[in-house]
Structure formats: C-alpha cells, structure tokens
Amino acid sequence: xxxxxxxxxxxxxVLTVFVTxxxxxxxxxxxxxxxxQLAATPPMGWNSWNKFACNVSEQLIRETADAIVSSGMKAxxxxxxxxxxxxxxxxxxxxxxxxxxxxxxxxMKALADYVHSxxxxxxxxxxxxxxxxxxxxxSFEHEVQDAQTYAAWGVDYVKIDWCYAEGLDPEVQYAKxxxxxxxxxxxxxxxxxxxxxxAPWQWAPRNGxxxxxxxxxxxxxxxxxxxxxxxxxxxxxxxxxxxxxxDMLEVGNGxxxxxxxxxxxxxxxxxxxxxxxxxDVRTMDSETKAILTNSExxxxxxxxxxxxxxRVWDEGPLEVWARPLADGSYAVGLFNRGExxxxxxxxxxxxxxxxxxxxxxxxTHQDLAPQENSYTATVPKxxxxxxxxxxx
Length: 392
Ligand code: GAL
Fold this sequence. Notes:
Strand 15 (356-361) and strand 16 (366-372) form a beta hairpin. Helix 11 (258-270) runs parallel beside helix 12 and helix 11 (258-270) packs parallel to helix 13. The strands form four sheets. Strands 9-8-7-6-5-2-1-10 form an eight-stranded parallel β-sheet. It has helices at 2-30, 33-38, 49-52, 58-70, 73-76, 107-117, 143-153, 170-182, 204-207, 221-229, 258-270, 286-292, 295-301, and strands spanning 44-47, 80-82, 88-91, 97-99, 121-127, 157-161, 189-192, 210-212, 243-245, 275-277, 310-315, 318-324, 330-336, 342-347, 356-361, 366-372, 374-379, 384-391. It is built from 13 helices and 18 strands. Helices cover 33% and strands 23% of the residues. It folds into two domains: 4-301, Aldolase class I (TIM Barrel), CATH 3.20.20; 310-391, Golgi alpha-mannosidase II (Immunoglobulin-like). It is an alpha/beta fold. The structure holds beta-D-galactopyranose (GAL).
C-alpha cells in the first residue's frame, strides 16, 4: 500500500510537471518569434462580410483578388483575401468540413491556390461554438480536424467567431485553436472574434494575433465613431504579433460621407488596427481607392514600433489622438466629432515636447511651415486632420 501510494505520488508529481510545462510552452508558443512574425504589424487585406454577407462565391473571391492587384491595393500593403461566414454547408461522415459545392464548385484548395498565384494570402472564417452566426457548422469539438483541413487547403488566416457558444469559456476555446493551428504544420494568423466578451485583451494576446474589442461595425458615422473613439485605454495590450481589432473597414460602402471615411481610416491607422477593407474593390471609385491606399496613412498603421495610439486631449466634441512612431515622430489626429466646422489645436506639450515642431499633412502629402509650440487647423464636421509631427 505504501509503495502504491508512493508510486501514485510520484506519478502525480510527474503529471503536475507535465501539465505545468505544457501550459508554459503553450503560452510561450503564442509569443514565439514565428507567431510574432505572422503579424509583426497589423494584418492588412480584405474580407467579404461588410459588403457581401452570405453572398460569397469563388467567382467573387477570384475577381476580388484580381482587383486587389490591379487597383494598387496589393502594392499598398493589402495581402489577405478572407472569406467570411457562409462558405461552409455541412460536415462529411468523417467530420471534415464541406464547402458549399454550388458557390465554391472548384473547392477551397483551388481557390487558395488561385489567391496564392496572385502573391496574395487566403483566409477563412469559422466559429468556436456549435454553429456560425449564420447557422453553418461551427468548429466546436472539431478544432484539430478543422485546423488540419485549413492547413491542407493552404489557408493563411482564420477568423474565429463566437456564436452558439453558450456555456463555453472563450479563453479555453481559443487556446484550443491556438494549439491546433500551431500543430497544423502551416503558419496561420488567428483572428479572435468574440466581440470583447470576457475582456479578450487580458488573455487573447497569448491566444491569437488579433482580437475584436467590440460588437459589429456598420456603415454609419455613429457606429464607426462610437467603436473607434472607445478604444482609448486598450493601447497597452497591443504590440507586434498581437493587436486590438475594432472591426473591419466600411470605407467605400456608401453610407458615410467622404470626411467620415477619412476619419475612419485615420482613426484605424492611429489605433494600429488591422486594415481589412470591406467594400467591393472590383467597382470602387477613385475617391475610395485614394482613402484605402494613402501610403502615408498606411505607414502610420504599419509603423514597426507597433505602439497603438491614444487620446491626448479632448474638449466637448473635439479630440486629439497621438501615436509614437519608430522614427521618433508622432502621428497625430485632430478629430471633430461635432456638427459644424471647428478649429482644433495640437499643443506639442501633448506629445511631450516644446519649441519648434515640423509638420506634415499625411492625407495631402504636404509639408507645413514649422510651428512654435502648437498648431491649429480647421477641421470639418465629423472630419479629421492627420499629421506627422516631429521635434525640430
Ligand atoms: C459576426 C461577426 C461579423 C461577421 C458575422 C458573420 O459575429 O462579428 O464580423 O463575421 O458574424 O456571421
């Protein structure tokens, strides 16, 4: 009896060591150089949901990939072509996930190959619960099998939603995916989409490369601005390899004004947000293309220092946000959330220096005259002036 107890104790100790080691390794995995490299800067690409919802097909995805190249979006940095909900219809007898044969007759592997032939990357959507939000099969209890399927198809990015997940713990479920993807043999970006439930910024940096912080965006100034301006305070949780995700872009979907879309893009760049275009890139007009591909605004989003911006001043409807950049300068947004044009001043003290500042307008690509201690711009209703400010 004594011997048996001794053996059990030893076995228990061994087990404890194994479990602890395993947990430590899993945590370490999330921060392994390869994981960080997967999203060293916020992912950029396109996603079908905001414009097309369930109306997805291989033809749409192929044409979109073509347009991302021909429009100059690829050259501007957009690389993921992501199919959202509704591509999947059922599971085979062996449990493997089945793509809709009517909408994707050539299958997902062929579609991934096509996207890769354009030197772009391919993403898919699933759900950590029993069904997706549109009631397609979820990945619950199929995490390993689905990760292997995605790897075999050549998937580079998986967005994992949180519908029909009653009674489940997101931290536990997303860790299962993290481990399943880590063992799939293919580097795959993990995009956590649980709408901020259980404060994902507290645990998601260990479990994925990006995590949604709120419910869904829509193509209105009210919703976009409520989401964007509510991100203040989350900046400490983001960095290379792991990003807050205030949801995908609505730029070009038609229900916001030009100044409002400029605000959307400026704010997302200051927030180091993933830039997933959500419009029809096959038919976008030159105004939309100019917003989505502005190189100096994108450079802010993709700044290698990877520090998310935050609010440095506000008064009534006026806000100034700043983001420190790798070259020692600051990206600065002057935001007017009010209903009429108003002047907004950035005092360089808000950025931590005094004296002469050099300024550049990032939307117009123009250097401004050097200023002493502050700069004031007139900002239109719902609009933004986006600057780069450096100490002289
Ligand atoms: C929501 C998600 C959206 C979209 C949609 C698809 O939960 O936040 O971004 O993926 O599901 O059904």
